[in-house]
Structure formats: structure tokens, C-alpha cells
Amino acid sequence: MQSALSSRAMLRAPLRASIVTLSARHVRPFSASSTSYLHLWDHLPGESVNEPSEGLAKLKGRMREERFRVKPLLNTAEHDRFDVVIVGGGIVGLATARELLNRYPKMTVAVLEKEREVAPHQTGHNSGIHAGMYYEPGSTMAHTCVRGSELMYKFCEENKLPAQRCGKMIVATSAEEHKQVEKLYKQGNANGVKGLEIFDAKQVSDMEPNIKAYSALYSPNTGIVDYSLVSDALASQILDSGRADIKLAFEATNFKKLADGSVEITGIEPSQNGPTLQVHAGNVITCGGFYADRLAGLTGGNAKKDQVVTFRGTYYQLKPEYRTMVRMNIYPVPSGGGIPVGVHITPTVNTRRGHALIIGPGACFTFAREGYKFWDFKAKDVIQSFTNPDFWAFALKNISLSFGELYKDLNKRAFLRAAQRYAPDLTIDMVEPSFTGVMSQVFREGGIAASDYIMERKVLGGTTLNVRNAPSPACTASLAIAEMIADIAAEDFQWSKAEKK
């Protein structure tokens, strides 16, 4: 290994020299650090861009106009009819609607979303454009991540949305962990990920002076984006088609196949008594995220199988004076168990948080499917999770992981210790609370965390396709997942190729 790393070091000597020169200009004293110096860069990714960009300004201007001056995009008709209705307005549902509208020039589509904005949950709390080195070569996950990454960068470029290829290092802190680095390097190359390199300790330090590691896998094409903006742009394109509607505050409560073969979807505004509204669909695709299993049950699918369990991820962020501590994504090697990717450091271009440098997340079990706070509690959700044998099988096989994540969620110092393994100068006084996100997870028989897509096909008399699981990196892969869903739907519903453009 050392000879291979040394040859790479020689090849990168000019780059290291330029980085060292640059970093030397930005060394500032930091008395609270365990060392005498902390390296701070000029700016985080995205800050050098003149913002708001054309696409961002246009999109946010339109969104403000529609939300605050124009009648809201709520339920405008009692008996709307569409060729396809997609239930779930997260990024996968929106991307699927856009894909169908692009493929079929005469098709009409509706998206039903129970919240009052699109993509408010898992999508809205995500920021990474992943490259694709975590997934088994030849798997659907590998294909959709690599292709989805290319499509996402292209989409952001076409719509002039802020997206930055800031890069990523997956760091090993020991020779034992380095085995994971080598494994990911081989997998990434097999999957077609471009530009991967293995760095030794000096190369890591030259690239990111505040990171201490035995080695790292460097991915130059990993990036960051604001998926809330991406979802808004997808929603705008859906509406601009003239053949689609997005119905917000529409919680689907019943699905019924009618004598003419169509599906009647009944819904209501969440937490309200009425009015009851209906939409008719030729075919239905559910992309329910947190509620994928319950939606499947409403359509006649097996609600007891592939049940959703949710986990809360807590984030902190660097205070403004320290937020340029690193310039790229810094991840630990995978910790195993199938749930947490580990506490990592990530720059953002998220409009809600500005250009923050965030640290997280954990992966703590929630007591409500929308459990953004530790004490959020919903009896139905807890009972369903605690009577799920596959969840218990996972928890019992990973007891230290389960209790460790719970402890980190409650203890800030324990949380930060996970990041201090590779960022030793990070101290508790440098960070402040940021946000929490919730992720859905499906467990298969024996407590195996599902790591691939799960599709329930031809339910409700052959009219409906249920997307039961679309795990991370669903945001990165969303446009490629949409292609896959459209292919499956065309086969199941026998949509004629002649209808395509």
C-alpha cells in the first residue's frame, strides 16, 4: 500500500504545494483548540458565486408570488380526473410526474401531497449529491446513484440552481479502517464513479489541514445542492406542462376501484373535518415515504410486510467564525449495521440555513413517524414499530449501535466525539444546534436493513404501483429512479409506446 500511496503523492506534489501555500495564508490562532492553530479557508462552496443566481431568483420569486398573492395550489375541484395520480409530493414523486409528462405528451398527471408544500420531510433535509461508491457493483442502487448524480448536476445547470462539486473524503483513522477505503475504491470504480483516488495521511492533511486520518477515499464529483429548490423547480415544470396539477393539503384516505376500471381516491385536509374531496385516476403510483406501508395497505397491498420505521438525525453546525473549517464533505468509513452513515461534516447551499457547515446526523429511533423532537410521541406509530419483529431482530443484532445512537442523540459531547476522531480540533464551544431530519427505513426478514428499492406491483386490480422503499441516496438518484418507475409502470399498465414522443 505504501508504495502505491507514495506514487500517488509524487503525482499530486504540484497540487499539494499550491494547497499548502493557500492554507498558509489562512492560518488563524484559536485558543480553544487542542492545538495552537486552526486552519480556516476563505469561503465555503457556493459563497464565491453571485447569488441569488438567475434560476434561484426566478424560482423563489415565482414561489413567493404563488404562495402569498395568488390563490394557493390547494384542491380546486371536487371530481378531477387524470390519467395518472401520484400520491406523495417528495422528490421521487415529483421526479416521476415530470418523467411521465416528458415521455407521454398526451398524459395528464396529478400529484397529491398531504403537506402544504412539496418535499417538506426527507427531501427538504437532504443536501448531498452522492457519487455511488457505497453500492454493490451491478446493483440497481449503484446504477441509479451514478446516473442520478449526472442527471441532477445537469438539471441544476439547466435551471441555474446552486449546486457545487465540492468533493468528499471518506476517512479512515486506522489501518483496519483503511480496508473499507480500499473496498469503496474498488466498488466505486466498478460502478463507473469518476476521479476516485486514495489519499495517505499527508495528502489528507494537505487537502484539509484540520482533518487527521490514516487514509481517505477522495471523490471530486461528490457535491451539495438544495433539494428544496430542486423540488420547487420540478413542481414548476410539472405545472408548466399544462397537463398536470399539484394538490397540496390532500391526505389520501381511501382508494376504490370503480366499475369503469378507474380508481377513486378520497382525501381530506390533514387535521381537519372536511370537506371530503375526490380525484379519479386511470392508474395510481404511490411514493409515500414515511407512510409508504400504510398507503400500500389502503390500495390493497400488504401493509404488514416491509413496514416503515423512522429514525431521527440530529445536526449541529459550526458557529460563523469557524464555519470554514473544511471545504468539502468529510465522512467516516461506514460503521456497519445498515442504518447510520456516521457523523460527518458537510458544507451546504441550503437557502434555509445559508452557507452553514453542518455536523451530523445521528440515527435515533423516533416515537412518531414525524418525530423531529425526542419527545414527539404518537401511540399508533410506536405500537406498530414495537410489534414489528424485523425491527426487533435488527435492534437485538445491533444493541451497541442502537443504544449508542440513542445516547448520542441526548448527549452533545458524545455526539461530537464521533467527529473528533478525524477532526480533533473540533470542540463543543465551536458548534451550535442546527436542525433535525427524519429518515424512513424498512427492515426485511431477520432484521436486515433493506438497501434496495421495493416495488409492489399490480395491486388494486392491476391499477396501482406502490413504491415501498426508496432508500438513500434517493434524492441524488431521484431522476434515475423516476426513469425506473416509469419503465415499470409502462410494463404493468401496458402503456403503448406509440403514445411516447
UniProtKB/TrEMBL annotation:
It comes from Umbelopsis ramanniana AG. Residues 83-487 form the FAD dependent oxidoreductase domain. Belongs to the L2HGDH family. Its cofactor is FAD. Keywords: FAD, Flavoprotein, Oxidoreductase. It is an enzyme of class 1 (oxidoreductase). Pfam families: DAO. Its EC number is 1.1.99.2. It catalyses: (S)-2-hydroxyglutarate + A = 2-oxoglutarate + AH2. Gene3D superfamilies: D-Amino Acid Oxidase, subunit A, domain 2, FAD/NAD(P)-binding domain. This is L-2-hydroxyglutarate dehydrogenase, mitochondrial. The lineage of its organism: Eukaryota, Fungi, Fungi incertae sedis, Mucoromycota, Mucoromycotina. The keyword Flavoprotein applies. GO terms for molecular function: (S)-2-hydroxyglutarate dehydrogenase activity.
